């Protein structure tokens, strides 16, 4: 496992390469309220790192699910959204690691998708634009353009 500091996001990046996907793990705490296990998808500019996981209590507001992570509220996103941002990242040539598996364009048979939160910073987005030009970075709220 590689632990390194990400100066753009201000947090440690945990990453590794394995032959089997590491699924989101719990933290062995008993919770009274409903909780979910999820990945932490961290966009770093030239890579999408989805190695860390957590378990948190789920809060609902306006039909959306949120979790508290590192003192901030993040939207808990659906597994299908994870597949969409992986496709977006790979189409732009961004390195993607999910649960220890380095992905290529034939990733769908290699992994299982889980809920996730998406973390990025303005500095990481700027790094992406410096490296890839004016292209828009992968983001779960971005939909693929409709074909005419």
Please describe the structure with a list of short key phrases separated by commas or semicolons.
plasmid; alpha+beta; disordered N terminus; single chain; 3-stranded antiparallel sheet; 148 residues; 2 helices
Describe the protein's architecture and organization:
This protein has 148 residues and is an alpha+beta fold. It has one domain. The chain is built from two helices and eleven strands. The chain has helices at residues 79-91, 122-132, and strands at 2-6, 11-15, 35-43, 47-50, 53-57, 59-61, 64-69, 72-75, 95-98, 101-102, 116-119. The strands form three sheets. Strands 3, 4, 5, 9, 10 and 11 form a six-stranded mixed beta sheet that branches. β6 (59-61) and β7 (64-69) form a beta hairpin. The protein is globular, with a radius of gyration of 15 Å.
The residue-averaged pLDDT reads 78
Distance between the termini: 45 Å
Radius of gyration: 15 Å
User: How would you sum up the global shape?
Assistant: globular
What's the tally of helices? Answer: 2
Q: Structural class of the helices, strands and pairings?
A: alpha+beta
Determine the strand fraction and express it as a percent band.
25-35%
Number of domains: 1
Give the number of DSSP strands.
11
H/E element string?
Answer: EEEEEEEEHEEEH
- Describe the oligomeric state of these chains in a short phrase: single chain
Portion in helices: 10-25%
- Low-pLDDT segments: 1-5
Largest pleated sheet: 6 strands, mixed
Task: Describe how the helices and strands are arranged.
Layout lengths: L1 E5 L4 E5 L19 E9 L3 E4 L2 E5 L1 E3 L2 E6 L2 E4 L3 H13 L3 E4 L2 E2 L13 E4 L2 H11 L16
Parallel strand pairs: 3-11, 4-9
Antiparallel strand pairs: 1-2, 3-4, 3-5, 6-7, 7-8, 9-10
Keywords: Plasmid
